């Protein structure tokens, strides 16, 4: 990572987390010098070791907060908090709503999905990228935390590739659970078919 992309720790503060029966202690960390200027957060959970378990989780207001069944974001977030707390590591919560297109655009894309488009085609129909997320900030945050090598809790190969390109070694990509429902199975199928997510769904190879 170049000197221009170096971020620093701004504050650390204890926050007990309570998520659907999961009760854990965390330390929230804020940063200065992140390349996009957004207010991303890291949560230190458990006792992070030399190669911590890390989840890079993009904000999803509808799923994380309101429990929307159109995606698997809320269950993935809760799973990550529980698993990282047990093994020791960091949850990076990135303010990249709707794979980086923003909340209102995501809801516009939902309306197009209701007309038959998949999640990627809906973004394209709105003149937006299929996936606008850039994980440079995640690499900056990890570097500021003194982390150079991680086990990455993710089904998304692009996260691992981007972190590696930014100088964070990914020792292992650890799959998350599969949280398929009637409401999100088409969304999950598009992840597998369009961006190579390592999910096993009925009738699909991993």
Automatic annotation (TrEMBL):
Catalytic residues identified in the record: 131, 133
Cofactor: binding comment: Binds 1 zinc ion per subunit.
EC number: 3.5.4.25
Pathway entry: Cofactor biosynthesis; riboflavin biosynthesis; 5-amino-6-(D-ribitylamino)uracil from GTP: step 1/4
Binding annotation for GTP: 55-59, 76, 97-99, 119, 154, 159
Cofactor: Zn(2+)
Enzyme type, top EC level: hydrolase
Binding site for Zn(2+): 60, 71, 73
Coiled coil: none
A Pfam short name: GTP_cyclohydro2
Reaction equation(s) it catalyzes: GTP + 4 H2O = 2,5-diamino-6-hydroxy-4-(5-phosphoribosylamino)-pyrimidine + formate + 2 phosphate + 3 H(+)
Domain GTP cyclohydrolase II per the UniProt entry, residue ranges: 25-175
GO molecular function: GTP cyclohydrolase II activity
Keywords, in A-Z order: GTP-binding, Hydrolase, Metal-binding, Nucleotide-binding, Riboflavin biosynthesis, Zinc
Functional note: Catalyzes the conversion of GTP to 2,5-diamino-6-ribosylamino-4(3H)-pyrimidinone 5'-phosphate (DARP), formate and pyrophosphate.
Family assignment from sequence similarity: Belongs to the GTP cyclohydrolase II family.
Protein known as: GTP cyclohydrolase-2
